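Duplicate of #3305? Posting structure anyway:
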């Protein structure tokens, strides 16, 4: 050991071990500090969100007592779900099922309206998001002022919830599907514009430089250099957004913007809980079918329909 300590290579090895031990010690301290900050922020957020609130409840014997809100509220959630389950019997299943979906003609009409709202809103969102994504991309913007204006517009469009946009458009254009289309379309423009611009910032710039060297304008660079590279990702994000818009359009009718949402509002107002479960089932099946079709189409576009190559 004495001979190794006195050898010429012992000093670098000892220095490496000392540096490695210091690095591990700093890493542990960083993780401990980060975990403590995260735990403190999470606890503070939970406190602001009333997760530690103590509320007064009525006990089975009629007396009232103070309890923590979470264990006090979970049984009520179970009661609500139990009210939405219809009374179905195998011997009279057909009649019971018909009674469960007793407004199926109205719901089918509103379901078509819901899908059409989502479709038109997706079209408006794709057009707006696609056109603004190029000047909003840091590597493609013609100048910083155009990029700043486009980015702020997209931020405003997606920051305001689509339900709030729906309230504004209902005030402007009265109740109906048009307010829903405008609300979801504007919100989709902001969300898709952000996603598209991030895709644009990751493209290879050499094709654009080639178009520019050949005398092409900014529009030519976008058309022949950028669009072919980003098109598969844009189609993928668009199909995902259509699925999201179907869910949004099924709720946005709650404020009078058309679709199944108005039936959900009426069912809640009239305490028709089994109607709520029927509407949920309709929306669930619709989203599941659209998700399946979108996945097949998305895989076909990006070349995964045959599975990974071996």
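Output from current build:
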């Amino acid at each position: 050991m004495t001979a190794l300590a006195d050898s010429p290579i012992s000093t670098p090895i000892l220095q490496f071990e000392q540096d490695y031990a210091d690095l591990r010690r700093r890493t542990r301290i960083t993780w401990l500090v980060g975990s403590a900050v995260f735990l403190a922020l999470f606890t503070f957020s939970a406190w602001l969100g009333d997760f530690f609130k103590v509320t007064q409840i009525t006990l089975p014997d009629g007396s009232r007592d103070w309890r923590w809100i979470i264990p006090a509220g979970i049984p009520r959630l179970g009661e609500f779900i139990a009210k939405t389950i219809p009374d179905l019997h195998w011997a009279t299943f057909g009649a019971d099922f018909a009674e469960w979906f007793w407004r199926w003609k109205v719901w089918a009409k509103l379901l078509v309206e819901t899908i059409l709202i989502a479709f038109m809103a997706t079209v408006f969102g794709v057009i707006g998001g696609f056109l603004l994504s190029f000047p909003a991309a840091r590597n493609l913007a013609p100048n910083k002022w155009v990029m700043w204006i486009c980015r702020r517009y997209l931020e405003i469009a997606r920051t305001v919830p689509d339900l709030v946009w729906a309230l504004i458009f209902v005030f402007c254009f009265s109740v109906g599907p048009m307010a829903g289309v405008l609300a979801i379309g504007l919100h989709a423009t902001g969300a898709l514009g952000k996603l598209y611009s991030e895709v644009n910032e990751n493209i290879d710039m050499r094709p654009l430089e080639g178009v520019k060297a050949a005398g092409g304008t900014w529009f030519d660079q976008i058309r022949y250099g950028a669009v072919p590279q980003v098109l598969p990702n844009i189609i993928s994000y668009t199909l995902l957004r259509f699925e999201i818009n179907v869910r949004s359009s099924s709720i946005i009718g709650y404020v009078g913007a058309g679709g199944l949402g108005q039936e959900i509002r009426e069912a809640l107002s009239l305490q028709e809980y089994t109607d709520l479960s029927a509407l949920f089932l309709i929306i669930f099946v619709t989203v599941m079918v659209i998700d399946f079709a979108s996945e097949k189409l998305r895989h076909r576009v990006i070349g995964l329909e045959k599975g990974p190559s071996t």
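Confirmed duplicate; merging threads. The mean pLDDT is 87. The radius of gyration is 29 Å.
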